[in-house]
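fold-stage: in
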Amino acid sequence: MTETDAPRQADLFASMKRAGRILFAATALLVAACQSIVPKGPGPAQTGPTQTGPEVTEGLPTDTLRHRVALLVPMSGPNAGVGQSIANATTLALLDTKADKVRITTYDTGVGAAAAANKALADGNKLILGPLLAEDARIVGPIAARANVPVISFSNDTSVAGNGVYIMGYNPNQSIERVVEFAKGKGLSKFAALVPKGTYGERSGTALLRAVEGAGATVVSMQTFDRSPASITAAVRKLQASSSYDALLIADSGRVAMQVAPIVRKNGGATARLLGTELWNTDSGLASSPVLRGAWFASVSDGLYSQLATKYRARYGNAPFRLSALGYDSVLLTVRIARDWKPGTTFPAARLRDAGGFAGIDGAFRFGRDGIAERALEVSEIGAGTFTVVAPAPRAFAE
């Protein structure tokens, strides 16, 4: 368990207000896919926790002047690198906002989510940020609910949202809806899909069907595969045999998309526009793939994240995981609400559902009544060595 307070610093935070121009001043102050898969970051994962503040071995001292907030992330085990990156990002957010009224204490879910949650509640925390994994959120949610403490999880598994659990993770359903809407606006009307077997693929397929129907277009074929070369080839040939399509969603990682695309081009999809999901945003290698040039995908904006990554490397000596932005933005949200939240009292969870939403490193977002974060997404096109934004993310939500 580690504790973080906020010294004085504000450069990235000030930059967000100047460069972002997204509802910060007006209305408010991000595994692992649906199967709790944690994507790799650009730097090596740390094998163990790094102290971000003085270690606390006993219960926390009485503190009536600051808000107690718990951060539940894996600081040990296979996902420790991701957890440490998120924890470090929350520290940066406290520094940048000068949030001297908020105290964040980190609890390691790597040794047990239930134990971490119970310890956090026993220490008097009134809000839980995390956990990272959906399976941990399912454990922590009911424990926190009994204490009337909201949970803002970094998972994107929408099945764990509700009953006091809010989901901040990047939702593939929303990225699919955004890119389909954009493609339809560009005149594409016959959609096909290749989806991996498993939960992520099933949910992506359902999201595509709904998005295409809502856009007034047609899904002409959808095939599943198990990521083996033979399975991919068989699925692509089934697409070719069953239909002609002008847009093809590859609902998998960028690495898999680079394997799939050449097979598509040789088997009936030579002129089809390739579409991806938010998973593509974490794979910079896509930009160097000639076979994916012209492909579109929707994701949160990287504009402010690049500033965070630079600041992170300067302070910690390595690159952050992309999911670290969720930790940063969860602190911005907390600090915004803390202006009207009396220390020691119940966290005003209703404020999480402000219609105008919040702003952060990942752009504008807001929680619906279902507890799922709705995000303003941009659409990017893969070019020769770079990603180009072809449809910027909205700066704010309509009330």
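fold-stage: in (second)
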Amino acid sequence: MDLDRAIRELTEEKKRLDKAIAALERRTGEGPAARKRAWSGAARKAAAERMRQYWAARRGELDAGTSTDA
């Protein structure tokens, strides 16, 4: 078996396998992952407000816990 023939046969086999894989993926419904759900504007605003409150409380604790007495 010469090298060119082996390469040609392997290439043909790869094409057959690619077609078989594509057919199976279509049948099982697999494919690219579905897009993730985006946050609504109201949910985004609510989360932003919660984080503002969280960080304001953190800053308050840090400011109260630090002393500049020399």
